[in-house]
């Protein structure tokens, strides 16, 4: 069974008293300040695998159920009853790499004493079909609502609705750590730029806005400024903070249901009023190219692109610049 190893740091000059060895990617070693992120996120300093002592003074061995990379983070699930889940998050701030080890407790996520409604969203008749991006891990299930989930690749966003064969609305889901890392490395700007090409879109964050100002591993002002800049640059793509994952799922359902109803109404208006261009029609006059079209253009232009899956944001930027 794989183990997470925690040993004493033999370097007397280091301010980080422990060494953490993670059994993934051939083995990763970090200097850190604690044996588990119980009350706060622990700063980790990555070091060479050779820095792991030949005869380490082991402080704790944590048997693992799983340990694997998920985007800019490593998800660690321990084989024990308590303190099971943690995450080693890689991010960049002020031009340098920073790594933090955090657990669900260190996030101090708000748990409002509310019950989400089970009433069907206004305007929906029967089941609402929500398309979930095929790359989305641990996707919302929309349990308790009359929703039919279908998986397919989306050019942008994690959840969407389709009307008359066209994606008319999409929602990008973010945890707070995801939001911070994608803001600092600029990938969120590209994602929001793609969302802005849809008739309706939004970004939903599974956390309170106030938690931005409690961040320890990046300057809160940098994150707050990035959120504000995106709101000004792309006013048609709101960024919504919803406190918890459950509330984020509920908001996503209501938003997509309202967008589906709106798009159907717009289509009817466009058909009944000759010469009247609805908001949906305006969006159709300049349709977003499919991923396959952009991939074919990139190959003709001599750019390196994968055979399947999402394309890098810079490929989309170069396509738009060329057209």
From TrEMBL:
InterPro entries linked to this entry: E3-bd_dom_sf, ERCC4_domain, Lsr2_DNA-bd, Restrct_endonuc-II-like
Any single Pfam family the record assigns to this protein: ERCC4
Keyword Translocase listed: no
Residues annotated as domain ERCC4: 129-209
Domain of life: Bacteria
This protein's UniProt keywords: DNA-binding
Protein name as annotated: ERCC4 domain-containing protein
Organism of derivation: Actinomycetospora termitidis
Lineage of source species: Bacteria, Bacillati, Actinomycetota, Actinomycetes, Pseudonocardiales
């Amino acid at each position: 069974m794989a183990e997470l190893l925690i040993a004493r740091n033999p370097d007397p000059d280091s301010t980080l008293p422990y060494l953490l060895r993670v059994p993934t990617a051939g083995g990763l070693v970090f200097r850190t300040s604690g044996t588990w992120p119980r009350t706060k996120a622990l700063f980790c300093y990555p070091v060479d695998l050779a820095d792991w002592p030949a005869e380490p003074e082991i402080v704790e061995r944590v048997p693992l159920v799983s340990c694997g990379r998920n985007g800019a983070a490593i998800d660690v699930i321990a084989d024990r009853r308590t303190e099971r889940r943690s995450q080693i998050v890689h991010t960049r701030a002020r031009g340098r790499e920073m790594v933090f080890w955090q657990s669900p407790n260190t996030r101090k996520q708000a748990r409002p004493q509310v019950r989400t409604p089970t009433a069907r969203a206004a305007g929906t008749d029967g089941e609402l079909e929500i398309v979930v991006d095929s790359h989305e891990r641990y996707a919302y299930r929309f349990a308790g609502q009359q929703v039919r989930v279908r998986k397919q690749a989306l050019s942008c966003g994690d959840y969407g609705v389709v009307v008359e064969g066209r994606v008319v609305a999409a929602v990008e889901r973010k945890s707070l750590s995801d939001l911070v890392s994608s803001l600092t490395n600029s990938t969120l700007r590209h994602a929001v730029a793609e969302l802005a090409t849809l008739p309706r879109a939004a970004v939903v964050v599974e956390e309170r806005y106030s938690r931005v100002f409690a961040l320890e591993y990046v300057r809160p002002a940098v994150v707050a400024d990035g959120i504000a800049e995106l709101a000004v640059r792309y006013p048609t793509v709101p960024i919504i903070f919803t406190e918890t994952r459950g509330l984020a799922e509920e908001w996503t359902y209501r938003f997509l249901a309202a967008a589906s109803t709106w798009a159907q109404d717009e289509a009817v208006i466009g058909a009944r009023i000759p010469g009247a261009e609805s908001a949906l029609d305006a969006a159709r006059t300049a349709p977003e190219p499919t991923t396959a079209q952009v991939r074919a253009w990139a190959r003709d232009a001599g750019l390196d692109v994968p055979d399947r899956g999402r394309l890098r944001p810079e490929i989309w930027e170069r396509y738009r610049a060329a057209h």
